[in-house]
Design a protein that fits this description.
The chain is an alpha+beta fold and 236 residues long. It has two domains: 118 residues, 2-Layer Sandwich (Beta-Lactamase), CATH 3.30.450.20; 107 residues. It contains seven helices and five strands. It has a five-stranded antiparallel sheet with strand order 2-1-5-4-3, sandwiched between helices. Helix 5 packs parallel to helix 6 and helix 6 packs antiparallel against helix 7.
Amino acid sequence: MIKITEIDKSFNKQILDSIPDGLVVVDNNGKWLMTNKPMSEIIGYTEKELLEKSSFDQPFLKSSNIQRLLKEMWERVDAGEIVTDVEAQLTRKDGKKVFLSCSESAIKDKDGKYIGKVLISKDITKIKEKETELKNAIFRFGFVLSKISKGNLDVEVDVDQIVKEYRPIAENINEMIPAIKEREEQLKKTELYFREYSKKVLELAKGWGMGEIFKREMNEWEKTNIINNRQITKTM
């Protein structure tokens, strides 16, 4: 059983409030005995609203997923493990969602007996938002680049759907598409010219008795040059 005097509370409170992450001390029954200012700021509840309640009675911890997560963490701590970096999404008092990275370990008395637990929660909401923004950007870039690789050049990245940080990449992709289109047009003109020119030369070659040989050589040249040019275009 953890016993905290008024002097202990005053001294410990100063220390706890100086820690940048949310911190909670609970007894073996899960009752919140101490917390710090950053924890209140993260979840939007005052210290008075939080203390003397069990973790299972805290309004922001009542979802079945969070309850299950708490039980799993406690079982691991009771087994002697120091639990680190367990991610959880909670709902603040104002209704906003917040992502936390939680770590928990046991508190022991001088005889090594378990008397409670200490939980540290780091607000990683901004990090998770950045991860989502990056995934969104990668998806949109990948979709457009996949279309381009298949010859569909009537696409572009919707820059308005990309956060400012990744917009230069989107703009570079969009600027690349007209260049590929122009290259495709040049290839089409080259192919057309080649086919018209080869027809005329083939007629002359037939007159010299070399029609089949010329036709075979021109087919090989077309495969080597036209196809390679198209492959280069697709990798631009």
